[in-house]
Each structure stands twice: as structure tokens, then as C-alpha cells.
Amino acid sequence: MIKTLRIYLIAAAILAAGILFYTKAVAPGESRDSDVSISVPETPVEYTSSQEIFGHTVSQSVYGNGAAETIDSVNNILYDYSSHWDNTLTDSVPGQIAASAGLKPSVLAEEDYAIIRRAFDLAEETGGLFDPTVGALTSVWAEGEATADQISWALTYTGWQEVTLSDEEMSAGIGRPGITVDMGAVVPGMAVEAALEAYQSSEIDGGLITMDGAAAMTGVKGQDGEPFTLGLLNPMTDTGEHYAVLQADDTVICTSDSNSGLLDPTTGYPVETDLSAVTVLSEDGFLSDAMSSILYMQGLEQAITHLEEADYQVIIVAENGDIYLSPSLRDKFTLRDTENFQLVD
């Protein structure tokens, strides 16, 4: 389970302003400064930014006093956050764990260990459907369609049971070299949550951010008090059209669909499901990102049993266009494409 080059089809649309943000894949490791683009209007009411951070396009639109400074601060937070969890870096948390392979387990910072523990608890709860050790699989699919031999090789280095955790010592150890901890299925959601917290603690009027399938918004668009809206892209086409519009402040919104690059860790191939998309909303970015993947992979029958969860809300789009909503989202969700989609009561 990994959102490989997760180019998300959740697009943030500030509808009244006619601005559409989207994500696309870029090569990791490009110059940070040269990738930053901040536009400043003649009347400094709205500031927008697009920055590449480890292969993810992060787009922001921020209104009010201190908007430019807030954008810069958030970009720095996201850059540091992403590098902290990048499994290709030796000094990251996954890199630290990988260095312990076959040796003494690596002792982690308390906060880092809590996140790792949470990921592996989900792996156990889902019977390995959610698997934080799919780094080898991700690598063989990174350049295109993997061969059967490549997949077979990668599967020998995949398995959440290969990682041993100690709550007492707050340590993580890998039994043999080659196993890679990959947190790509939850890092975007966690990073966007950190950005949202930065918005909320600043003096801006409001802000919206998108990052690799995750989004969040808070406040309003300037002094007029116009609320933000999020356009959800049609998961069945690549036309860029919205099938629905969502209003959901102060929550992290993550979506998984056929374009998310999710891999089934039991087969090594892309996930087969009877769903077109799953969107999960939660104040908890980790939970939002993880559950969007899990429910999408589990399929319609299991996904619809999660419509009334206490910790998150769900939008489920079936292959035939049927849409299932958590009851609390009814007044926040507006269906735009009534020809191809229909709400199920």
C-alpha cells in the first residue's frame, strides 16, 4: 500500500476567484529556492505560492496581513517535514531505521516512534493491506510498469512483520537489510496538518493548501469574508472537471483513486477495487491520509460501513457513479455533475 508518485486528482478550486491548483510529478532533489514561485498582486490581498518539495507540488493561496510571511514559513515547515520522513535520506527517520537492519534496533524520538507505531498498528489491523514496508515495490514501479521478475524480487523485501518495535525502548529494528520503511501513504496528510496549524496560529484572514492528494483550508478570502471551497475532480476522466464542491474548514482532506498509484502489497500490482475514489476528512492528517488508502483498497462493501465514524468523515464514489456520504457532510457537499453521479440516500 503506497501512493506511488501520488498525483492527486483532488484539485483545490477557489471558485469565486477562478483559481485552480493541481499537482504533477517532478524529479526529487531539485533546487529548493529555484522551485519557489510566489505571486503578489498589485493590491496585496491574496498571495499564491507553488513549491516543489521532494517530488510533490505544494500550492498555497493565503489572504490577509502577513500572508507572504506565512507562505514562506509553511514552505519551510513542509520542506523540513518531508525530509524528516524521506526514506531515501540516511538521516531521516526511515533512513535511521534502515541503518539498523540486522543490527541493534534504532531508538527514535518519542514523537517519531508514536507515528511509526501507529503505522504498524494499522498494518496489523488491516492484515497487511496497509503496509509501511513497500519501499522496494515503490522503487520498481517508479519508472513505469514493473516486470513480473521485478515485482517478485520486491515482494521478498516487503512485509510489515519484518520490523520489530519496542514501546519500552521506543525503538524500531529491521531483521534483515533490504526492507525499507516507507511512510509515503501518510506524510502528505501529516504535512498538510502541520501547514493548517501554521495558518491557524498566524494573523491571516484565511488560507488554502494542496499537497499530493491532501488539502486543507481555514478562514475566509480576505475582508469580504467569502468562504473557501474545494473542487473535487472527476475520478473517471482526466478532463479536469469537478464532479462536486466541498466546504470543510479546519480539517485535512485526502483522496485516493485510480490515479493515486496505490499498490497491493500482497500481489505487488496496482490495487483492484470496485471504487472510483474515496475522500476522507479529519482533523488528524495521518488518519485522513491512511484511511483514504485503506477504504479505497477494501472496496465498497467495507468502505460504506465507515460512514458514521467519530474521528473522520467519508465521501465514497463507486464505479457506477453512486456517491455515499457521511451524514455530517450533507450540508457541506454540493454535487455538480448530476449526469454521471448520484447521491445515495
Describe the structure.
This protein is α+β, with helices and mostly antiparallel strands and 345 residues long. It folds into 2 domains: 12-81 and 186-343, ApbE-like domains (T-fold, Roll), CATH 3.10.520; 93-174, Orthogonal Bundle (T-fold). The protein is 26% helix and 26% strand. The chain has helices spanning 67-84, 93-98, 110-125, 135-141, 148-155, 187-201, 285-298, 300-303; strands at 12-14, 19-21, 37-39, 46-53, 56-63, 106-107, 163-166, 171-174, 206-211, 214-221, 226-227, 230-233, 242-246, 252-257, 275-282, 313-318, 322-325, 333-335, 342-343. The strands form 4 sheets. Strands 3, 4, 5, 9, 10, 11, 14, 15, 16, 17 and 19 form an 11-stranded mixed β-sheet that branches. Strands 6-8-7 form a 3-stranded antiparallel β-sheet. Strand 12 (230-233) and strand 13 (242-246) form a beta hairpin. Residues 4-44 have low confidence and may be disordered.
> Which term fits the overall shape?
globular
What do we call the CATH topology of the largest domain?
A: T-fold
What order do the helices and strands follow? EEEEEHHEHHHEEHEEEEEEEHHEEEE
Strand content: 25-35%
Tally the helices: 8
User: Low-confidence parts, pLDDT < 50 over ≥5 residues?
Assistant: 4-44
Helix content: 25-40%
Largest sheet descriptor: 11 strands, mixed
CATH class (first level) name of the largest domain = Alpha Beta
| Overall pLDDT confidence | 87
Domains, number: 2
- Care to count the β-strands? 19
CATH homolog superfamily of the largest domain: ApbE-like domains
Give the C-alpha Rg.
Answer: 20 Å
Structural class: alpha+beta
Q: Span from first to last CA?
A: 31 Å
For the record, the CATH architecture of the largest domain stands as Roll
